[in-house]
Amino acid sequence: MEIKVDTKKAEEKLNKLQNLGQGAFQILRVWLTESVRELKKRARDMKKVYWRKTGKLAQSAGGKTLVEGKQIRTIIGSGVFAPATPYARIQDEGGKVKPKRAKNLTVPFEGVKGWAREYQNTFVRKNIIFQKTGKKSIRPLFSLKKKVDIPASNWFTAPMERKKKELFSKLGPEVLLRENGIKNE
After folding, report:
1. 55-68 residue pLDDT tens
2. Pairwise CA distance, residues 61 & 52, whole Å
3. Do 180 and 23 meet the contact criterion of CB atoms below 8 Å apart?
4. CA gap 92, 77 in Å, rounded
5. pLDDT band at residue 122, thresholds of 50, 70 and 90?
6. 134, burial (CB in 10 Å: exposed 0-12, middle 13-18, buried 19+)
7. What's the domain count of the chain?
8. Based on the domain organization, do 64 and 14 belong to the same domain?
9. How many angstroms from the chain centroid is the CA of residue 170?
10. Which pTM value belongs to this model?
């Protein structure tokens, strides 16, 4: 008795299945690039006071995709490639800010630029730093606060929740099989 088995189709499917990881890796790389671009835009567009906007939050946003054995890992956030900004999390989630070294935080009044230490001829009265501008004229510069509530901006959380849903829809098993030309029989 002689039995012949044609394994060409099975081998083709097996080769395609082995290439699924590469397809998933490409999907992750494209997703990561789009996500980082959106995070940088959100960080740049945040409503901040014009005189302290440095762009460091946007510069710190980044991501990378790593292949570790048979696993693909994607890391995205503040400080992945550029130095992390210590205030990235509080800008996103909100919270209370307290001074680290000084007794009080200096909160500038509208139109005041720079830092309190940069001003000369100043004095403090009723938790407000004033500056003498003439013989009898003064102007308020900064309010002294023990703590300040920062509202949540969701600059990171909101776009990442949306982008995660998008990614999971692209990485579903049916989608990966269909995009790699494998029929699920």
Report:
1. 888 888 898 888 77
2. 18
3. yes
4. 11
5. very high
6. exposed
7. 2
8. yes
9. 22
10. 0.69
H, E, C per residue of 82-106: CCCCCCHHHHHHCEEECCCCCCCEE
**Same domain, residue pair 79 and 159:** yes
More confident residue, 50 or 36: 36
Does 68 share its domain with 142? no
Question: Which range of residues forms the domain containing residue 125?
Answer: 95-150
Is residue 41 domain-shared with residue 82, that is, in the same domain? Answer: yes
Pure H helices in the chain: 8-18, 20-45, 56-60, 88-93, 157-170, 173-179
pLDDT digits (tens, 9 = 90+) for 16-27: 555 556 777 788
Asked if 69 and 23 sit in the same domain, the reply is yes
Banded model confidence at residue 113, pLDDT cuts 50, 70, 90: confident
3-state secondary structure of 16: helix
